[in-house]
Amino acid sequence: MSDKHSIPGPLANEGLPLAERGLFCDAPPRQYQRANKITEAFWNWARAQSLWILGFGTGCGAIELRPLMTSRFDMYRYGIQPRPTPRQSSVFVIGGYASVKTLKRIVRSYEQMMGPKFVVALGSCTINGGMYWDSYNTIKRIDQYIPVDVYIAGCMPRPEALLAGFQELKRIIRAGRGEGQNEYARKFEWYKANQKQVIKDWNMPDYNW
Amino acid sequence: MVNPLYLFAASLAAAFLLPLVDKLGRRASLALVYLVGLAWLAAAVSWLLALVQGGVAQDFGTAGFMAPLAIVLRVGLLEAAGVLAVAAVGLLSAAAMHASLRQAPAGGAMAFLMLLMGLCGVILTRDLFNLFVFLEISAIATYSLIGFDDRRPALRSAFKYMLAGGIASALYLIGVIYVYRFGDTLNLDLAIRAPGLAGAAGNAALFFLLAALLVELKPFPANGWALDVYQTAHPGLAAMLSGASATALLLALWKLLPLFGTAHLVIIAGSGLATFLAGNLAGARQRYTRRMLGYSSVAQIGLAMAVLALGTLFKLGSELFLLAVAGGFVLNHLLAKTGLFLLSAAFEQAGLTDAAGVDGVDVVDTVDDAAGASAAAQPARRLSPLALAVAGGLVLALVGLPPFPGFWAKWQLVQALADRSRWWLIGLILGGSLVEAFYMLRWLGRLVAARGAAPVPTLRLGAGLLGPAVAAVALAGLGVLSGVFGLTGALDPKAGSTLASLAGEPWLWAPWAVAAVLFLLDWLPGWLKGLLALGAVAAFAWLVQDRLDGLRQIFAIMLLGGGGLFIVAALRKPGSRGGLHPLLAMVTLSLGAVLLAETRLGFFFAWETMTLSSWLLVRRGQASRQPALSYIVFGLGGAFLLMVGLAAGGFDSAGAWPSGALASWPFLLALVGILVKAGALGLHVWLPGAYAEADDESSGLLSASLSKAAVFGLFALVLSRGIPGSLSISLGAIGGPWLWRALGWVGLATALAGALYAVWQEDIKKTLAWSSMGQIGYIILAFALMDQAGWTASLYLAFNHFLYKSMLFLAVAGVIQRVGTRNMYEMGGLIKKMPVSFLTVLMAIIALSGVPPLTGFGGKWLLYSSLIAKGWYLEAAVAFFASGVAFLYLYRLIHSIFLGQPKLNQSGVREAPLALIAPQLLLMGVLMALSVFPKLLLDPILEITSRVFPPTLGFSGDALVSPLGYWNGTLTMIVTGGVFALCLLWLVINLRNSQGVRQFNIVFAGERPLRPETTHYAWRFFEPYRQAVGGLVRSRAERFWVLVGGGVSAVGGALRRLYTGNGQTYALHVVMYVVVLYLVMGVVL
Amino acid sequence: MITAILTRVGYALVSLFVITNYGLLLIGSMARISAKVQGRVGQPVWQPYLDIIKSTAKRNSISHGVMFYLGPVFRLAGGVGTYLFIPAVFGSALFRNFSDSGDLLLVMYFIFFGQLGMALGASEGGHPYSAIGVSRGLAQMTAFEVPFALSVIAVAIQYKTLDITAIVAAQQGGFLHWTVATNPVAVVAALIAFLGMSMHNPFSVVIAPQEIPIGPPTEYQSNLLGMLQTNRAIFNGAKLVLYMNLFFGGATSLPVMVIKTFLIYFINVFVGQAFPRLRVDQSIRFFLGAPTVIGVAGVIIALL
Amino acid sequence: MKELITSLANRYGVRDWKDLKAGQAACFVDSGRLRDCLRWLRDEAGYAHLSFATAIDQLERGVFTLTYALRNHERGHSLLVHSEIDRTRPVVDSIHRLWAQAWTYQREMKEWYGIDFPGSPRVDEEFVLEGWQGPPMMRRDFDSLAYSDATYAERPGRASSDPAEHMKRELYPEEQA
Amino acid sequence: MKLAAILVHLNPVAIPGALLILIGLWGILARQNLFKIAVAFSILGTGVNLVILSVGYIRGRTAPILDGEAAVASMTDPVPQALVLTAIVIGLAVTALLLSYAVRLRSGGGGSSIEVHGDEKW
What we know:
heteropentamer, D: alpha+beta, Beta Polymerase, domain 2, 31% helix, E: mainly alpha, 0% strand
């Protein structure tokens, strides 16, 4: 990966009051080296076979995730399973429209995941706003704020579409193209600026470790 | 010898001259009073010297005639001592009343002279009617003195006194005239031999005489007037009444004693005992100092009366013995009470009302209004150390603690009564003493102002302290003399050998000597005192090392070593830390003394010393008033039980437990007495408060070391002195196995309850306190197994408990010092600020919970192995449950303090001071060494236990082998270490790009934490657990003891309702008392 | 001397390797069996391997401090140590492990080593759910230890020893010599305790994914999590081997061990699939109730 | 019911009584007498329960209509009390002392419509929005689309179509042709 | 007949003495007025003195005055009489004190009833 030192020094965390700055880590995100080719390929294969979804239903689309766990669709057979904490999850499923309020939580949770991490965006709303195209409170495209690996269109997409999307994600990972984390770190300032443009009460550190 | 008549003449002359001398100024007339007092004193001293040097008692006739033609005065040893006491007290009282006497009319001084003379006359005369005259002289003098400075309440009291006194004198007159009628003489010595007094009529006549004397001695319930007088009269006069007057009257009773028959003696004894009990019970409810002292006074006189009569009734011993015991009590009472009344006079002069003042010299109304009161009232002024020492000495003497004369007297009395199996009498006397100890020590506890808070001005007592100080010094001197030479030694060195003494055990005095020296040096800086104390402990240890056999060596490490550690820990704060170092040294050395004691008296002496000194240490804590009180009351209660047990036998070679008696109840009592100190369930209610409220280093000493003294007590109880030599603890004689099984269950219940209580504490020190209790429970359980494995487990557990509880208390002391709170939920995340303390606590809790590979597992292994091998299966299961519960509080302890979220206001916290860290490091090293090489500790223990019991445990290579299994501590350590290293290596290899984060970088359901307080899960940590098993422990013991306390208090409250304050009621009491006595005498006859 | 030591270490490593793989496969197959119960296909049997590789292959990680780091180390060392203190296969030098370090008591207490360390590590994470999970876990632990201890005591009474090898030796000679045949009551108590020990339903409130997202390991990730997953396999194996040794006649060969432990574990899964979760105070009361009585009965039977 | 209407009218000048359906009625009161009227209804007329309170933006008339829904549980009757305030001066008495829960509704109205209730607890804190800096968004003169366009990035290439036309095209392509 | 014999044997000095003692006691216990109590004490004292005298009284003998004629054998016992003198003196002192205290108590504002002078109790 290129320009490792594009974001130098500790973050300013200006959104936090002075007294609270010591409570949060102020290190910027980094781009991480990939291992050698064979190892990385092996690892990517394992990563693709063990997709742990962050159990955070950000929008109405989350309801379409539930059938996946049932015996009819049974996502476990693909090595996909829900996980209750971002620390242990590798896939973040954005479940449809994201209001500004939710976006803040999305950013925070995304940043708290350990890399490599992948984002699957669900439904039209995440692509271009969908039916919330004129809402005063809903963002219109999620990839302005976090990197997205796979979009699944629909309003809402059916579980079958979700499964297809996950298969697509697996292909991407196996191909070594699931580099959203490094992408985020590389374009960190851009993402952060976009986030801060819509999230007006920024009361968290610039990067949530 | 000087003829006492001259002194009477001089007194009278001085009294008549006073109005004339008074023209020269009141100062002159007072000088005259002092002069006469000094004359009496000098005469008494000269008589005493003459008599001690081999003189014989001498009679002095009046007007050149001897009896029966004239009144005879006799000067014997007792009389001389009595006059000495009266004169001395008189002088001190006069000094205390000086200011008042100067202002009042000259009659006051005259009355004082007459009182002095009257009392001396009471002591000296051998004529019954003359006795009446002197009684009346002193009574009238007292009446007028009570009212001399025109205190209105005193006037009222004087009037009541006159009613009672008047009736008594009428009784006496009737009695004396009929004695004359039937015995044909008024001379005492002739009357004793008079045949006419032997019959029924003579009995009746003597009864009147006796009744009058008894009424003057203030028996229950005919003593309301006396209490009012004590409360209202000038304290100096009260001292005179309580000290001198009571002594004189007791001597008069002593003189008349040969006149009386069995029925009279029964009356005296019964009345005395009733007074003792009732006085103390009612005293427990007093809120006015002097009224409380009055009740105590009345009770003490009752006890002395009872002892006099009982001695003759039950033939407790030679006359000298009786003299010694009763004399010990009287002397003790005389000096202590005089001192205390004079002290209260000093308080009054310093401007305190009787009811409040120095941190509330008033006494709280009930036992349990504890915390509120102590927290609310910050003391306005506090006593100077000297005043405190004097007050302490006086109260401790009064309560009968070592080294004061009362202690020795009580010991002798209980011994004598036990020899004659008068157990119920012992019960009554010790019960009453305990109640008295309760309220007197409560009073003393209130005098001690809490330390720490803003400095408060010292109360100036000035010259007023002189009298009390003299009394205290005299008490201490006499006490030490009695201790060294036996009780009578003070009076007659030749007789000393007949009574028990500490002559052969000088080491037992070490705590006192060192404490005295260090207290004198208390002005030195703290570090110097600490070093001195440490030096004293080290020197002591070095000097006595070859007196310690195997068992005692192990305990010496725990007790003396622990003491040394905590003395080092006391260096943690700068400044003088007044009183801390002497007390720490004293406690430590008293623990050493417990180990060294060779006789039962010595053991009990050391035990009481330990109880007393540790109480002082507890009381030094900030909010410790109530906990310290319950500590000392339970401590003394336990000590009394122990005393009864020891009185029956056991301990020293002189009296091993009577065969088969191990299960008999004296042994049981001694056992219970020791269990109190160990904090066994049901007897533990003092424990959490005392451990929690003492200074932090003191708590550690109490928990880590002092509790081991109780464990040692257990061992000492069943082993006779000198384990290696006389290991012939006749195991055959050990009572039925049920006893040990029951003891085992007590230990088990203690372990379980201690652990469960600890789970729900918020206060870190309370957690540790309950934990201590639980751990001692295991030790008791293992001890009760009574086999080699069990004892090995017990000793091993004891040593380990010493190790890790020391570590915990040291670390926690540092935490509390840095953080400034004891509530665990107010801490958190201190691991980064106090890493060494964390490490200490970590190792300690791993050891405590018994998780391998640290040394604690050895204890668990030994415990379960021995339990199962013995066949105590259910016990093993419950023990397993209890030690599982220990995980709960241990985890909570370390989590709430060191892990989790640091608090914002604790960002400046630093590592604990070196004085705390250094001992922790040392202990950690020892812990590690013992973990890797368990043999280091187990070898000596096995060596001891296999000498007592047939060995079942033994080492095979590095493995300890029991009949059931084996344990190789070294290999365990190696395997664990290897595996741990392997895992760590794996982690280090595979962990990439690790980013250290801060406390709020946690996943919080998409949110961020707002405050550490709301993020740190610590408050009511195990609430679900309480819901599930909280029913197992519902403070039943506390409720029981509150009930007992409440019951005693209620009885006292009911008794004192008799004293309505109406003089006529009091007069009625007197009349009824006499009537009842007469009926009782009829029944006995 | 040196060779003897090296041989033992080598044997232990082999033994460890076997139990790790076995444990992982056991977890994987049990998950698949559960899926069948629910009418699903279920994850592949080798899914646990993939998960561990994935966790180990994470590119970054975070740490809350030294103890946080050491938590999984303690946990894994606890699992490995527990296994190494148990003789896995009777009469086999290869699977004897370090069972000469101590007897049954050592094993029972060493179980706590990892739990305590993990609890401390999780605590340093500063997450309230970690502490809540630990508090629940410890509370439940005190309760299920009681029937377990009772059944162990019953075993000790029956065989008059606490030496695991000796206990297994005493059970040799056919099914009728197994503890489960000679004292079934005690075994019932022990198996109920095992349900609690495994934190399967209905005693899974410690990790309660819905309420306190997976409890203690909430903050753990990357290789730290990988170690916890590995430990799960080893630790499970260790406990199963212990149960097999105490109650089911031990094993004289590896296949026997595999079959027996599989069947014992299956009981767990069976119950876990059939019951909902209990609240922590409910489960504590449960364990101190009927199972304890059963355990006492087991002791009494052993005494008869 | 008659008495209620009369006394409301007499006491507080309540007018426009309308029975909406069985058990529900509406009426109108001047904003200045609103609070006294509500208190009387609560204490004297048995309308002890405040079901909800909300506002309606009457942009055309230049007023906010406030609506308080009260319920009398004894008689099973609900009453909608309407009142009007000037849009340019949107201030009205707080009733949180009558019904403690009213502060929530008032905070909501403050955020959404900008109607102020002096003295109401936490009335100025944000309610459902975080960091909202625009005008009160439920006012009808607030242009949501313009705000959205100005604030949120859009993916290029988005086109709108009339759903009816679109579906017609999709389903019956031959008709189009 | 018998009664008469008993009456004859009764000591004519002791009987009134005993009666006075009882009256005195009754006065002390039952009268509330401080001064009356003092008077009751006097009565009690007188009774006691009579009792003392009665012990020395021997029927038919003379006063114990050695004036040369009366033999010692025909005298009553002089000792009780001597004692009585002392007792009277002491009684006087006590009575005087009682009265003076009663005066001081009453003048202090407490009144003459003993019941109001009972603040110290329990």
